[in-house]
Specification:
Layout (H helix, E strand, L loop, with lengths): L3 E4 L6 H12 L3 E3 H9 L3 H8 L1 H18 L3 E3 L8 H10 L2 E6 L2 H10 L3 H4 L12 H15 L2 E4 L5 H17 L12
Parallel strand pairs: 1-3, 1-4, 2-3, 4-5
Helix pairs in contact: 1-9, 2-4, 3-4, 4-5, 5-8
Length: 188
Amino acid sequence: MPTITLIGYRGTGKSTVARELGLRLGCPWWDADVELERVLGTTIGELLRDRGEPAFRDEEAKILDRLLDEADGVLATGGGVVLRSDNRGQLQSRGGYVVWLTAPADSIRRRLAADPTTASRRPGLTGSDPLAEVDAALASRAPLYRACARLEVDSSSASPSEIADLILRSLKSHDAHPPVAPGQGTSS
């Protein structure tokens, strides 16, 4: 089971921050999208084109389930993993410390436009330009990310190192003060 799981829209820096956290913690880190492509032997773009979004989401759910069982350390999920309620439940119960990396739509569009692999690895899901769908996708997914996350971090103006520092400080504070289960209080 991962110690830390990163969720958020594509282009928010999940993979980069996962790598940084893995280095800091001295543990492995996993990118669910890379693992999905490795297992299937195809890119996400080809999978979407050849089999459609429902098949992609099925494969994404299988990879998530496997990584939540087998992967220790840090896990960076795909941006749309929260779209399925079963996945959200898995993240909440088995994802460890779940962190939502956020960024404003204009920042995400700039990052996606600057990434030469956007067209092949991060295609639009609506059949349109991936940069055109950012605003609507962010608005519809925000409550789903929020439901899973214990921490929300805006990645638009901080470096991966600064984000990792913030997450580790928050995790340390969280571990020092574990949440109280509903219906249980602290006794003196």
